[in-house]
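Write out the 3D structure for:
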Amino acid sequence: MTDNAEAETVAPKWTPEDDPDGYTWDDLKNRDWVLEQFLSVTFGLDDETENASVSLTVDFGGTIVSGVVIPRGAWLVRMAELLNGAFSVDNGEGLGDALERNWRRQFDEMTEERHARAEKGLPTVGRGYIHFGDATVYANGAQMRVKQWRGIMSSVTGWSLGEMVRQD
């Protein structure tokens, strides 16, 4: 006979069918856990360290991006600056400022959800994107220098520390 009190303390096994937020196995599948941990140590689990950077070269299934990886918050500030220089909204506010405010609110909500799931013992969604500032994109035999670039972590097929130097 089993002790009911002991059985109640065992956390139930997670299944997508029972997930309160509707996450599936695909939503939670392990990406490159080494890269994910490296970025979390460098920038903080929630990208709270906004003044850090690291040079990386990342393969996104044949498209190579090489440059300086920055935390999400720094990327948002830079995007706001770029957009403010190009667009404004009806009230005279820069488009970048309006979008940055909205994006930060959404990221804050995602961070709160991740913390709430962790407290409940539920699996959490990993880092979704990697953010570059001042990068070079190599694709289809061409290269393009960009001020900002954002790539989805689930598309990473390989990576290396440092920036790529093209040898012609």
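The chain has a mean pLDDT of 84.
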